[in-house]
Design goal:
Helices cover 36% and strands 24% of the residues. It is an alpha/beta fold. Helix 5 packs parallel to helix 6 and helix 6 packs antiparallel against helix 8.
Length: 255
């Protein structure tokens, strides 16, 4: 464990309700994430993985235990402190893209910069354009979501998550609404951001094939981490895309 892990949680528990209606969503979870990791959190419905993700994303607070995000003690913070920390340290990617339909790609990506109460960012348009360039959409700045494919919309969402230069990118079922080819495209982008640019990524997925693109898998069950292991035979999403194209070409020739 490094002196400044991106995430360090110890004995984190989360209890909803009380008495007979008490639900223990997390039961003493320990987890450390180091800079440059790409981790997949897996678990069935009700396992506690979504609660864990919400706590990691400062969208919820633990009932007990400690949480350090980039060396900052999170547990015990108030709502405004959590909101500021989210804006400064975290980028979010969701299954449903969550883009504003009547707003251009550039304006969607610029939005988190405009919400920053610390006034850190100056040329927000240029930063948004650079983020879109980073995800391969430099020529789609003025396009609205309805003019983009599902994969392109998710790339806009990833650019929006990256634009504030976060310490950590959190992705909640980022390929859940995508077909297999587009899933590989999005995971190829995550792998590139992680392998070549060193961005730390934690994603939640229920798809084992998606988890194989990560470097490490954390399996959650009954509110506890049951298994935490490196990915053996890690797959390259870019290579899988190339092989899929080759297979399509072979089928076309055979026809």
């Amino acid at each position: 464990m490094s002196e400044k892990s991106v995430i360090r949680i110890e004995q984190v528990a989360k209890v909803y309700g009380s008495g007979e209606n008490e639900v223990r969503a997390l039961r003493g979870v320990d987890l450390t994430v180091e800079p440059g990791e790409l981790i997949a959190i897996m678990g069935s419905s009700g396992s506690g993985k979504s609660t864990l993700m919400n706590i990691l994303g400062c969208l919820d607070v633990p009932t007990s235990g400690t949480y350090l995000l980039d060396g900052i003690r999170v547990d015990g913070m108030g709502k405004n402190q959590l909101a500021d920390l989210r804006n400064q340290k975290l980028g979010f990617v969701f299954q449903g893209f969550n883009l504003l339909s009547r707003t251009s790609a550039l304006e969607n990506v610029e939005l988190p910069l405009l919400y920053d109460r610390a006034g850190r960012w100056k040329d927000t348009r240029a930063m948004a354009a650079a983020a879109l360039e980073r995800v391969g959409l430099g020529k789609r700045l003025d396009h609205h979501p309805s003019e983009l494919s599902g994969g392109q919309q998710q790339r806009v969402a990833i650019a929006r998550a990256l634009v504030t230069r976060p310490t950590l990118l959190l992705a909640d079922e980022p390929t859940g609404n995508l077909d297999s080819r587009t899933t590989r495209e999005v995971m190829a982008l995550f792998q590139e951001l992680n392998d070549q640019q060193g961005i730390t990524i934690v994603l939640v997925t229920h798809e084992p094939e998606v988890a194989q693109y990560a470097k490490r898998i954390v399996e959650v069950r009954d509110g506890r981490i049951r298994r935490d292991h490196p990915v053996e035979g890690r797959r390259s999403a870019a290579q899988d895309l190339l092989e899929a194209v080759d297979d399509t070409d072979d089928l076309a020739e055979a026809a």
